[in-house]
Amino acid sequence: MNPSAAGKTYPATTFTVDPERVSAFRKIFDEVEGVPATFATVAEFAVMPQIVADPELGLDFSRVLHGNQEYEFRRPLREGETLEVRCRLGSIRELGGNAFLVLVTELAEPGGDVVCTARSTLIERAAD
Amino acid sequence: MPSVRDVAVPSDLPVLSRVVTSEAVKAYADASGDQNPLHQDEAFARTAGFHGIIAHGMFTMGHLAAWLSTWAGGPERIRRLTAQFRASVFMGEAIVAGGRVKAVDVEQGVAVIECWVMVERDGKTEWPIRRGEAEVLLDP
Hints:
- The complex is a heterodimer.
- Chain A has helices at about 20-30, 40-50, and strands spanning about 15, 65-75, 80-95, 100-110, 115-125.
- By secondary structure, chain A is an alpha+beta fold.
- Chain A has one domain (about 5-125): Hotdog Thioesterase (Thiol Ester Dehydrase, Chain A), CATH 3.10.129.
- In chain A, strand 3 and strand 4 (about 100-110) form a beta hairpin.
- The model of chain A has no long low-confidence stretch (mean pLDDT about 95).
- By secondary structure, chain B is α+β, with helices and mostly antiparallel strands.
- Chain B has a domain at about 5-20 and about 60-135: Hotdog Thioesterase (Thiol Ester Dehydrase, Chain A).
- Chain B has 3 helices and 5 strands; from the N terminus they run E-H-H-H-E-E-E-E.
- Chain B has helices spanning about 20-30, 40-45, 55-70; strands at about 10-20, 80-85, 95-105, 110-120, 125-135.
- Chain B has a 5-stranded antiparallel sheet, with helices on one face.
- The relative contact order of chain B is 0.24.
- The mean pLDDT of chain B is about 95.
- The interface of A and B includes residues 24, 29 and 72 of A.
């Protein structure tokens, strides 16, 4: 992984809080109503292919573990709404041969305020 | 649902247990979009050094969020949730989510919770999620 890629911002995309997927999420965890707090992971996963394929970053996804996850909400997500997804590489650090990438994904009102900020720490394990 | 005025600090919250099945993990892969074969393919998981299929870290966090939402009175009460993934979870294991109220802000109606997910394995306690923290809005 290339540490100088830190701070890179990816082109914004859109994400719809699909009621069918929300319902599937609720069912798995026996939640009765609302949009589960970790549903934002769907948006994070939707942008993952462009990050994995980014030659400037050079992430080896086959060696990646999920180290840490954080969600912050200004308000809950609403079923059926379409939000803008803004994704950037927060920081890249090396420690003991492992590389730690913090991926910051913001879900925002189109052209407006951030609704939810997701921070994922991905650990690229040292090669064998 | 609880009000910050009635919540003792510190106080332990009731735990919530869930047995992790391959059906639920497959459903999670489809719902989340995370189709990593580590979570579906036994042979692949073994090649990667695990003794069987492991659950997504986010599956475990999803259970933690459901536990919190059950106590708080709905997912919309959760303002912040963080987790550190520290151990894998295998199919058939029971994951137990729990935590305690660390602080309350009566003015803001907010409770700060420290939370975790544990699993008993071979007579030892493992921590798939450690040092989780959440802020929940109990009194909007």
